[in-house]
Each structure stands twice: as structure tokens, then as C-alpha cells.
Amino acid sequence: MRKKISKLLVKSLNKESPEFKEQSNKEDIELKKHDISTQYEQNLETFKSIFSVPLNSDVKVREFTIRSLNRRAFIIFVGTMVDLEHIKESIMEKLLGNDQRSAKIQDIVSFPMEKTATNIGEITDLISGGVTALFVEGDSECYLFETTKLHGRSIEKSDNEVIVKGAKEAFNENLVENVALIRKKIKNENLIVESQNITKRSKNSVFLVYEKDLVNDELLQMIKDKLAALNTDKILDLSMLEQYLEERPRSLFPTILYTERPDRAASFIEEGHIVLLMSNSPSCLVLPTTFWAMMHSPEDHYLRTPYGNFIRLLRFFALFVAIFSSPFYIAITNYHVGMIPPDLLMAIAGSRERVPFPSIVEILMMETGFELIREAGLRVPSPIGPTIGIVGALILGQAAVQANIISPIVIIVIALSGLSSFIIIDGSMNFAIRLTRFLFVFSAGFFGIYGVMALFTIGLFYLVSLKSFGVPYFAPMTPHFTSSKDLLVRQIPLKEKFRPGYVKPKDMVKQRKG
Amino acid sequence: MESGKLGKREYMSIAILMIGAKATDSNPALLYSKVQNAAWMVPLLSAVIFFVGLFLLLKTMDLFQGKNLFSVIQQLLGRYIGFFLCLVIFLISSFGISFDSRTYTNIIRSFYFTTTPNLIIYAVLMVLGAYGAKKGIQNIGSVGYLVVFYVVLSLFFALIISTQDSTLQAIFPIWGPGKLEILKQSSLKITLYAEFFLLTMLIPNMTSIKEFRKSTWYAFAFVSFQISIAILIFICMFDTSLKGIGYPFHTSIGFLSLGLYLPNVEILFFVLWILAIFVRFAAFIYLNALMFGHLFKINDHKFLIPALTTIYLLIGSIPENAIEVSLVFKQAITNISGPTFFVISLLLWFVALVKGEFKHAKNRNGM
Lengths: 514, 367
Prior knowledge:
heterodimer; A: 514 residues; alpha+beta; 12 strands; elongated; B: 367 residues; mainly alpha; globular
């Protein structure tokens, strides 16, 4: 009943989608369903029209005669996406220069990767992706050579997830190199790199990377179905795909791990997770993800156990400091004054004496100021970068205190919470913490500690109900699953025997004896 | 672990938070007013008495694998008597939750937010309970499990530092007003454990009744121990003045200090205590909605939660002041609910015995 009413409401609010004056491309779509003909002229005509040659300046068509066969032929490729040297050496020179009579193209051309196709649509897609197509007079098939060569930056250090000990390399925009980065860490024939086309217009494809003998088939199928069900024109980047895939795109908290570190991706694959890669994205998505994965850093494992656990506990402590320091300040100064030791109370009261604002306004001003400095520091061109620090520290800190706009203790509180928020390395989680902090500030202003704890409990209820591809957010702690207990603290590596039970891997136990 | 099922850890956390919280409300003072310095024995003795009832109840429930309490009652006692009994249980538990929630509101108001209107504190508490209940029992259990360690640790920490200011001699004379009186009060105060009776509604949410039984016994033993220890320490700390103190836990944490520098640390304990209370009421409201849904054949019992919560809020707002709550309303519920649930447990077992259900089960197993 409720659903019906809400549907009616939605219907009455949303008018029918407006009509646009569109140009039909029915003919083009129809054309792509056909196969190529054996007629040389017709093929040439078809592909020239599809690729709008000569309007399209980087699509190259080269006509010639294959001497050994004495037949006319043409190749077509997108000049900006191919390796021209390679085409010249192993395709053109061979075709033109070969004198010996031979019937098969495969025997003439020395290019290593070759396949054939007949469907016009398929061939068109491949050419758009940088493949060179060879059409020979009288042949009903077209020969395709994977000559793709894209330009991009080389493998560099990880910028956003910095660690001291351990591998430094990060994913870059080149998909082939990204796959190679994972492959060189997992030298196993069961590592599958499966590609799936997900968009209709730009034909973006996603690569699913997983280990065949570990991954749970239902989970894999679920992800594949979800990818197949995406009905969009274009998804250019992995970070866009992340939003399409998430169960709750409006939620403050992320449910998919986005990392730029291949070592991290490899370790998740080894535990039975699925990693998504996309060309043009210097990162990967790890599915499914839990709260713990967001809070952990690869360095927790690279460091020796006590040191690793130390920084991990420090991070959890920082999480609480980042969220609660400002709200606690407000709650204690406004509602629970008795809690502060008398001397400290005097000091706080003394410093607040000449400040005209209530403490919540002070905190909100400084929090906003801090967020501004942070965002500005990120966007500012690097030559003027250092000025931001000076402006921030000097103007917003010292001058504000001297002008009696805020009290010095607020600066300490804000600096503490701001500093702590940097320790949470996952970008999305970082945002989640920063935003929830504002909610906590308001709840503290409204109702002191009681309000803070009420909001905290709501948050907990909300978080435990979150699911990432069917996996509860706090698994394997609660609900309980068998795992290596790599949660608040980690074990020594020898004791980490199990893969996490929540991904239901085919092989639970690592390094099984015998 | 099967998806959608309540794990044993989560169930135990709910049980410990729901019943263990009783050491921190007006119960210790109520007990003290009846049996003076033998009050710490009452939880243990009541536990022994209630154990009999619960044991027989679980034995009976064992015959109906995976059925909840209300299904079992209706199956054993027939449609009409069964319905009537279930209604009685639901009503008792409804009044229980109303006055209980009011008690906790009073605690929060009188100790921490003395100038805030009662209704607002109460409304926040109930809205939170409703939100949690709406998320379902698995999620309540998960939150419970996340907080239970810290809550129990903080309680024991508070108790341990309370011993600094207490004298052990306060427990003498050890039998208080006399053995008979202790026994009488113990049998009346089995209400302390009444929630275990209601928690049998959750059996279908667990993977097996065996798991449920085992977790129940663990939680039961722990909770009775916890309440008893807490009362013992309150007696040692406050001695005869405990009678006049409404909520000894909060009085004692207000009294505590960590060294000379931190004189008032009650907020630290309050933070964890309030977490436990939120989980407790979320579970309580969920159970009541579950019972109501079962009584009137409403499958989507989650939709009932807001309405029920509002009603409880209104009932809980009836008493004019805190004294009235704890001395009139809560006293009445306390004296009724435990013994009623105990009698129902015995009755169910007896009916099952007379009907020969145990024999049937044995035969079935034998075959």
C-alpha cells in the first residue's frame, strides 16, 4: 500500500521524459550487424563511411597490392593509438616485399598477434581500440593485428598511500602494466584476468582479476551480473564505476576499497577477493570490502608485529580523536563542567573569558577554517604551496586568538582532530570521518555527551547494517566468521592461517600441510 | 555462519547487556530496602530458582525445534488459552519496558542532565531504541557485541576502584534480616532474570536451540555473578545508607576519582553505560514488536516498532516523578512479571509432560 502511494506520488511529480529532436542512427546500427563482403571496393566504402575518412584526420587507410598474392588490399587503423613502427616492420614490409608465392596471409605477416573476424560491428569496435585491420580482395574475413600502443606515464611511486617499508610502486593509467604489476606478484596460472564490456557508447571494459581456485563463484557471478546490468553510455574511470556498483551511493561510508597499490590488490586477491581494473585509472577496486580493510594499511603487515600493531592501534586511536575531540570539548565545556579538574577549568575559563562566541560557534569556525586550508592546500599550484601553510598557521591561528575571536584551547582541539584525520589513509573513509565529525559537533551542542553517544549508537547501528556485496561491514568480527583475526591487532604471520570466511573462498586454509 | 542468523556471541552480548544493566539501576537499592546487607545473595538465590524454570522451559522448547516461545505456548495450550497467556506476557513486558525506560530516563536526568526536560531525554532514548530495533536483531546483536567488552570492563573497573572507599565489614550480619526473608525475597525477585524468558522468542533466529541453550547458560551464569558482585560492592561502599540511594551505581561513579588530578570521571563511565542502555532498549523494543506481531499475525513486525515505541513512551510518561516510578509502578511490575513467567515455564513443562510430548520425542529419536 505504502509503495503504491509513493509510486503514484513519484509519477505525478515526474512528468513523462521530455521529447528530444534526435537524429536516428538506425541505419548505422543495422549496418554493424552485417558481415563484410568479399568485394574489395564495397569494404573500403563501408569502413571509410563508418570512420568518416577523410574527415577524421587520425584514421588512416592505406591501399596497396600484395605482391605474392597479386591481390589488392587495404589496412585501416587509428593513427594515434597504434605503434606505427611495428605496423611498418612486421605488416607492411612483409606484405609488400614478399616475393615467394604463398596463399596465406598468416605465412607472410610476421606480426605475433593475429586473429580474424567477419562482423562489421566487431571489427569497428576493435579498430576504435587501436587494432589494425587488414582487408584482402576476395577474402570473406578480415585480419586483425593488436597494434595498440597508448602513451602514458611510467610506473611511479604511490602518492596517496605512502608507506615507509615495503614496495613503493603504484598503478598507473596503463592497463597492461597494471595487470603485469599484479601478475608479477602472483605467479600462478589460476590468476584470471577477465574482461567485460560495461558501457554501450564508449565501450569501456573492466578487467576482473581473481584467482580461479579461491574466489567464491556466487560472489563472482553476482559482480559479473551487476557489471552486466549497468545500462549507461560511458564510465570513463574506476572511481565512477565505484559509484555505480555501490549498494548505497548516498551513504557517507564507502563500501568498496579504492587503492592504488598493486601489493595491496595482490594480497586481497590471494585472500579470495575480486579486484577490478580499468584502463585509464591509476587504481583498482577491491570487492567486497569491510570496515577493517578501510582502516588497515599495508604497512601494518610489512613492519614487525609489535610495530605494526602499534601503528594500527595508533590509527584506531586517531579515528576516535578525529571524530570526538571537538564534540567532547563542546560537551564538556557546556554540559559537564564538573568533569574538568579545577585548575584546568580555570585555565579554560580564563582563555575563553574575552571570547564573545559560544564554544560551538568557535569550534565550527575553526573546523570550517581547517577544512578550507586543507582543500586550498590540495588545489593550490605547487609553486605557491608553502604560502598556504603560513597563511593558515599565522592568520587563522595566532591572529584569531589575538583578536579574541577564538580561544587558544580550541586551536589545540582542532589541530589535534585535524592531525588525527590525516592518519586514516583510505580517501573515502577520511571523508566519512571528516563529515561525521560535523554531525557529532552539532549533536554535542544540542545534547552534550548524551547526544554524542546517541549519534554514535545510531552510527553503529547504521554501520553494522551496511553490506558490501553481501558481506557485513564489520565482518569477520561481528557477525563472526573464521578468519586470521586480522582486525584491531594482527597476529604474527605464522598464525595467520585462514583466508577471511566472509568471502567464502574455495580454500579456507593457507599453507595447508601435506 | 549462516547469513541472517543471530550468532551466539551476539546473542550473549544482548543477554548480558539487557540483564547485566540491572546492576546499575534502582534494583540494588530496592533489594537493600528489603533484605538489607544480605542483598547480594538475592541475585544468586533467584538465579538458582529461576534456573529451574528456565531449564524446564528450554527442555520443553527442545521438543519443538526452532519454534519460538509463543508458537510453543499456542501449540501446547491451544488457541484460546495460548493466546490469552501470550497476551498476558506481552502486556507485562510492555509495562515492564515502559517503566524501565522511564527509570533510565530518570537516572540520566537526575545525575547528568538536571536541567533538561524529562520528555526530551526520554524521547531520544526511545527514538534510538526504535531505530535500533528497526535494524533487526542481527544488527542489534552486532552492536551489542562491539560494545559489550568495553561496557563490562568499565563496570568492573568502576567497581574495583569503588573498593578503595569501602569496608568489607558492612556485609555483616551475613544473613541480614534472616534466612527465611532472604528466600522469600529471592523468589519474588526472580524478575531480575525475566528477560531470559522473553529472549526465548529469539530461538528461530539462532542456528539451533542447542546453541541457544548453551549461550543462555553462559550469559545467565555471568550475569547473576555480575549483579551479585555489584550489589556486594555497593553494600560495602554505602552500608546502611544504600537504602536511601536511588541509583547506587551512578552515585558511586560520581564519587570516584582517578588519582588526585581527575576528581570527576563519571562521564567516562556514563559514556559506556549509555551505550549499553541504548542496545538494551533496542533489543527490548524489538522483542516486544516481535511478540505483538506474533500475537496478531502481522508478518512485517518492523512496521509496528514506531507505533509501539510511541505507546511505551506515553505509558512511561504517566508517572509524575521518579519516586512514583520506582516505588509504585516498577515495584508492581517487578513483583508480578518474574513469578508469572516462572509459573508459565512450569505450566508449559507440565502440560508437555501430561500430553506425553517427551515420550513422543523419545520414540521419534529411538526410531
